[in-house]
């Protein structure tokens, strides 16, 4: 039996997933390009250290994408600021596009906005 309750994504999460897919595709294309190239732009054969740097960068961006995956998935978990701030930090560390869903998540998760206004 399937679960009929479907989770609705917010606009900030949709933006985050678009950014995530764009960055994932760019990283994969660049990784394939860097790992399959045998010479650099001057025609000199690549050495083992070039391949080692390529693998290291691929691992760093892979870890970043995993963190961003959970950050976007849990963007509004308990309406806290944790995951939006994680996305902003990821944006400052490399993939600057993560700043957009991070700031958007902060705006949506604002506790003052979610509380009813008190009229005196």
Q: How would you describe this protein?
A:
With 120 residues, this protein is mainly alpha-helical. The chain has one domain (11-111). Helices cover 65% and strands 0% of the residues. α1 packs antiparallel against α4 (99-108), α2 (48-73) packs antiparallel against α3 and α3 runs antiparallel to α4 (99-108). The longest helix is centred in the first third of the chain and has 26 residues, at 11-36.
Short description:
The chain crosses the membrane at residues 12-36, 48-70, 82-107. The chain has 120 residues and is an all-alpha fold.
Question: How is the secondary structure organized here?
Answer:
Layout: H1 11-36, H2 48-73, H3 82-93, H4 99-108, H5 111-114
Helix pairs in contact: 1-2, 1-4, 2-3, 3-4
Transmembrane segments: 12-36, 48-70, 82-107
Keywords: Membrane, Transmembrane, Transmembrane helix
């Amino acid at each position: 039996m399937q679960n009929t309750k479907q989770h609705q994504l917010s606009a900030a999460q949709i933006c985050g997933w678009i950014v995530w897919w764009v960055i994932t595709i760019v990283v994969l294309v660049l990784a394939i390009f860097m790992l399959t190239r045998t010479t650099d732009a001057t025609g000199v054969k690549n050495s083992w250290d070039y391949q080692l740097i390529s693998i290291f960068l691929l691992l760093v961006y892979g870890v970043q994408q995993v963190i961003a995956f959970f950050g976007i998935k849990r963007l509004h978990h308990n309406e806290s600021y944790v995951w939006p701030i994680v996305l902003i930090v990821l944006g400052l560390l490399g993939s600057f596009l993560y700043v957009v869903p991070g700031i958007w998540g902060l705006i949506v998760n604002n506790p003052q906005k979610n509380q009813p206004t008190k009229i005196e």
